[in-house]
From TrEMBL:
<dbReference type="GO" id="GO:0003955">
    <property type="term" value="F:NAD(P)H dehydrogenase (quinone) activity"/>
</dbReference>
<keyword id="KW-0520">NAD</keyword>
<keyword id="KW-0274">FAD</keyword>
<dbReference type="GO" id="GO:0016668">
    <property type="term" value="F:oxidoreductase activity, acting on a sulfur group of donors, NAD(P) as acceptor"/>
</dbReference>
<protein>
    <submittedName>
        <fullName>SidA/IucD/PvdA family monooxygenase</fullName>
    </submittedName>
</protein>
<feature type="active site" description="Proton acceptor">
    <location>
        <position position="434"/>
    </location>
</feature>
<dbReference type="InterPro" id="IPR036188">
    <property type="entry name" value="FAD/NAD-bd_sf"/>
</dbReference>
<feature type="binding site">
    <location>
        <position position="301"/>
    </location>
    <ligand>
        <name>FAD</name>
    </ligand>
</feature>
<dbReference type="InterPro" id="IPR012999">
    <property type="entry name" value="Pyr_OxRdtase_I_AS"/>
</dbReference>
<keyword id="KW-0503">Monooxygenase</keyword>
<feature type="disulfide bond" description="Redox-active">
    <location>
        <begin position="44"/>
        <end position="49"/>
    </location>
</feature>
<comment type="similarity">
    <text>Belongs to the class-I pyridine nucleotide-disulfide oxidoreductase family.</text>
</comment>
<dbReference type="InterPro" id="IPR001100">
    <property type="entry name" value="Pyr_nuc-diS_OxRdtase"/>
</dbReference>
<dbReference type="InterPro" id="IPR016156">
    <property type="entry name" value="FAD/NAD-linked_Rdtase_dimer_sf"/>
</dbReference>
<dbReference type="InterPro" id="IPR004099">
    <property type="entry name" value="Pyr_nucl-diS_OxRdtase_dimer"/>
</dbReference>
<dbReference type="GO" id="GO:0050660">
    <property type="term" value="F:flavin adenine dinucleotide binding"/>
</dbReference>
<keyword id="KW-0676">Redox-active center</keyword>
Length: 447
């Protein structure tokens, strides 16, 4: 028996749930399939940005004192994190049910371009959709480290955030931004932290001065960073690696594999629907996020590109505009890309850095100032870091790198200026409230 729907959505992520609610409210018959009820609402609210940022905030207020006191504080933080994510999960589910969306628990796979088979606890069902949206997200990349899959001490980010016992020593494999966020967080909670990365250069995509500043802050907090480390194996809680021609071992209470995420397409059988995958295993789409089948779209992490929930939200806008609007929104006109890394202080960036501008042959000048020169930084007792921007001869803002307190809020002002083609003088002369970190943009763009 086949059940017909106007729209089928595979995956309860940011884009999928947003599209489902809007289409159902407009009178469309919509089914949303999610294989894990613990993931209602998507990665962000369950095992990603919301729980990790809640724990990062808690870590900043962790007590000084004995390890036992810190361990109890950490245990309470994990418990409160679970309460938060459960409430958000329920709110997301209730919103879709109230909108009239049929939420189906099960694993979806294509039978052909118009049919999804769903394996549920009660058996397999077959759904037919006039339009289909793929929003199945991503899964952690597990590197082929001998012994990693046999050790109870090895974690990925979501399992580590559910660990009730504070690790006395945490090893993090991977020096990317997820790894560094966890390094900063667990060091604040009171763990001894060692970061191992295979590349010799620390944060190789960032400008050297920013990378050096970030590394210096982390190391002053007590995070040990080892670059050029090749992991040779894990046996229970002992990790073996080679660096600088020497073989070394480390013992830990927990080992985090922060080695990236890949598109979650393994169960979909996209080939049955005539849908192509890109080099990273993600769904191949055009600028409107349409696949090779014009009635099928894909959104979010499953694309195999940048993995941020706010881009997934914008994906939903592009798809809805393509389905029901003018079709003018595309991935090509979404403006400058910005992101934040929630270290202490946080690092935020938008647009080009020096490495990228030089690679593209674009002329620029740099302006920079230390975070310690900002009055609000003194008020907050957060004087570490630096602010930096790239400007062309005619005042066009190419990009900004803000390693300072409250940078995740500040970077949005710079992105807005860039997207609206405002020159650096606009931020130079803007009247900001005082004292704020944002008013530092007056000084930065005056240099």
């Amino acid at each position: 028996m086949i059940t017909d729907y106007d729209v089928l959505i595979a995956g309860f992520g940011k884009a999928g749930k947003t599209i489902a609610a809007k289409l159902a409210a407009a009178g469309r018959k919509v089914a949303l399939i999610e294989k894990d009820p613990g993931m209602y609402g998507g990665t962000c609210i369950n095992v990603g940005c919301i729980p990790s940022k809640r724990l990062i905030e808690d870590a900043m207020h962790a007590p000084d004192g004995l390890l036992e006191e810190k361990a109890e504080y950490y245990r309470r933080a994990i418990a409160e994190k679970r309460i938060l994510t459960a409430a958000l999960r329920k709110a997301n589910y209730d919103k879709l049910i109230a909108a009239g969306v049929s939420v189906i628990d099960g694993t979806a796979s294509f039978e052909d371009a118009f049919h999804l088979a769903v394996d549920t606890a009660e058996g397999r069902i077959l759904l037919q959709g006039k339009q289909i949206i793929i929003n199945t997200g991503s899964v952690p990349v597990i590197p082929p480290i001998p012994g990693a899959d046999q050790s109870r001490y090895v974690h990925v980010s979501e399992t580590l955030m559910d660990l009730e016992t504070l690790p006395e020593h945490l090893i993090i494999v991977g020096g990317g931004y997820i790894g560094l966020e966890f390094a900063s967080m667990y060091r604040e909670f009171g763990s001894s932290v060692t970061v191992l990365q295979d590349q010799k250069e620390f944060l190789p995509k960032e400008d050297e001065d920013l990378a050096a500043s970030i590394r210096s802050v982390l190391e002053r907090k007590g995070v040990r960073i080892i670059t050029g480390a090749r992991i040779s194996g894990i046996q229970e809680n002992v990790l073996a690696y080679e660096a600088d021609g020497k073989s070394e071992t480390l013992q830990a209470d927990a080992i985090l594999l922060a080695t990236g995420r890949r598109p979650n397409t393994a169960d979909l059988h996209c080939e049955r629907a005539g849908i192509a995958l890109n080099a990273r295993g993600g769904i191949e789409t055009d600028e409107h996020l349409r696949t090779a089948q014009r009635h099928i779209w894909a959104a979010g992490d499953v694309l195999g590109k940048l993995q941020f929930t706010y881009l997934s939200l914008d994906d939903s806008r592009i798809i809805l505009d393509d389905m029901n609007g003018s079709g003018t929104r595309t991935i090509e006109n979404r403006g400058a890309f910005s992101y934040s890394v929630f270290l202490d202080p946080p690092f935020s960036r938008v647009g080009l850095n020096e490495k990228e501008a030089q690679r593209e042959g674009i002329g620029y000048r740099t302006v920079s100032l230390p975070a310690s020169s900002v009055p609000k930084a003194k008020v907050l007792r957060k004087q570490e870091g630096m602010l930096k921007a790239l400007i062309t001869e005619d005042g066009t803002i190419l990009g900004a790198e803000l390693f300072c307190a409250e940078s995740p809020e500040m970077i949005n002002l710079v992105k807005l200026a860039m997207d609206q083609n405002l020159k650096a003088d606009v931020l130079k002369n803007f009247i900001f409230t005082h004292p704020t970190m944002s008013e530092s943009l007056n000084d930065l763009f005056s240099l």
